[in-house]
Amino acid sequence: MSYDDEFATVEVLLRSNLETRAVDSFAISLMKVERQMRRIFTFLIFQHDNYKIGDGAELRKILVENKDMYLKNFIQGIDLIFYKTVKQIYGLNYSNDYEQINSITLDRNKIFHGQITGKRLSREELIERIEFMKKWCKNIAEKFYEEVGYDGFGRNAYRKSPNKLSLKNLERFESFDQYKNLLKEIDRRK
Using one digit for the tens of pLDDT, what is the confidence trace for 77-102? Predict the structure, then answer.
């Protein structure tokens, strides 16, 4: 799976004549932003020497039990366990782009729950936000692939990197119980 494959559904929707194409593509695009960051986080967790092939199922189960893990949490988690922060890896304009993603998330949450954003977003404005999310994901994919060998779009994040990665705070996720505690700590940092 690649960036292009991941956003193929969005492109099909946008090219259609369906009345809800922009709002549907908008919601799907943000889901892809969030999933990409989750996969990068879980990929990095799995790099701990204590985790072996087959441990992905238990790590996934533990993550499922933590229902309040969102984009911000996964970014905080990456910042806690990797020697570079997401901001450092993303590069220029991170702060502005991250704020834009936060704003998009608030809009999506309203739309997703059938509420009104109060912004009267037009189809064109939604499409601009979709293009921004695609830009964000492409940058994250390229920069993280260069940094860790994984772009967040590969289907199985529970795999070992061909390169030894520099992780920090290893004792905080060296066992399943420690991983549970780490997730609870990240959730409380909201």
Answer: 999 999 999 999 999 999 999 999 98
Q: Which residue has the tokens 């996964």?
A: 74
- How many domains in the chain? 1
Helix intervals (H) in 1-148: 3-6, 8-15, 21-46, 56-65, 71-81, 86-90, 94-112, 123-148
Which domain does 30 fall in, by range?
3-188
169: left (phi over 0), alpha (psi -120 to 50) or beta: left
Task: Give how far Cα 119 sits from Cα of 25, 115, 126, Å.
Answer: 18, 11, 11
User: Nearest 10 degrees: CA dihedral of 9, 68, 82, 160?
Assistant: -60
Largest CA distance in the chain: 53
- The structure tokens listed for 94 are 């991170």
The CA distances from residue 103 to 46, 62, 63, 97, in Å, are 31, 29, 25, 10
pLDDT tens readout for residues 127-176? 999 999 999 999 999 999 999 999 999 888 999 998 889 999 999 999 99
